[in-house]
């Protein structure tokens, strides 16, 4: 039967007392630097890891972080999770990942399940269907550290990490306009989501800057965030089969971009006469047909920063009253030979 190495084993091997080894591993001030080095070098040599159960009993912490995203298979979120893990594991925390699939009911279940597992904190990107935040407010009010990333809410005062959705949307819409495109439709996520509002604002601002009137008929929302393909298909149908067909569609999320590309081929067989641009972190976006000019978010960096802020909350010895809202820049990638920067 496997038995992990304990502090007692290290003490016996090195000829130190258990208390000396324990204090050396904690970098205690009462232990000499020479002794600390001997203990730390040996611990590293044998790949010693503290027993998480013993630590949790002693410190009333589990050294685990819960992460709730809409879908791990989503390119943006898989990259963000890589960023989360790069910080968490380096600082001795385990990561427990849950998927909401943009469902309110599943998000509620996930939040309660992770809290019942006594995670030390939560990283959350809101589900598209969530408009009632009582389940998160309850945990926040009980003192559970929570940090939001990507899809955030104003109702809870805590750290938040987002991309510059306004600027990303403005940049891609302006790119289309500068290439002579005037009729630009917009396929958006659930209208109440923070990212949807910010991206709509950027889209409108670019139109206004170039003297193009905003056309309500050119806007469709997917309230389930692309979880229900029929909804995406119907939204695209409304855009491309109307009397005044758009020349381009700006799509506001990764999952919707893929759904839009599939649907547009069904309702507009000559799909190459409609340009597609939108948010996507896909690593194979250049292979899409029709091609997709995309706004890429710094997903990995967002995950790292959100995790770092969460661990600061978890490990703070005093109540935190000042919170940060971090906004990271997006990048525009041109994948259509008919467009130019």
Please tell me the overall pLDDT.
87
The CATH homologous superfamily of the largest domain corresponds to: Response regulator
Structural class designation: alpha/beta
For the biggest β-sheet, the strand order reads: 2-1-3-4-5-11
- CATH architecture group name of the largest domain: 3-Layer(aba) Sandwich
Provide a count of the helices: 12
Record field, number of beta strands: 12
Low-confidence stretches: none
Radius of gyration of CA atoms, rounded to a whole number: 25 Å
Query: What is the distance, rounded to the nearest whole angstrom, between the alpha carbons of the first and last residues?
Result: 63 Å
Q: DSSP strand (E) fraction?
A: 15-25%
Task: Provide the succession of SSEs.
Answer: HHHHEHEHEHEEHEHEHEHEEHEE
- Specify the CATH class of the largest domain: Alpha Beta
Protein name: LacI family transcriptional regulator
Domain HTH lacI-type: 5-59
Pfam families: LacI (PF00356), Peripla_BP_1 (PF00532)
Organism: Solitalea longa
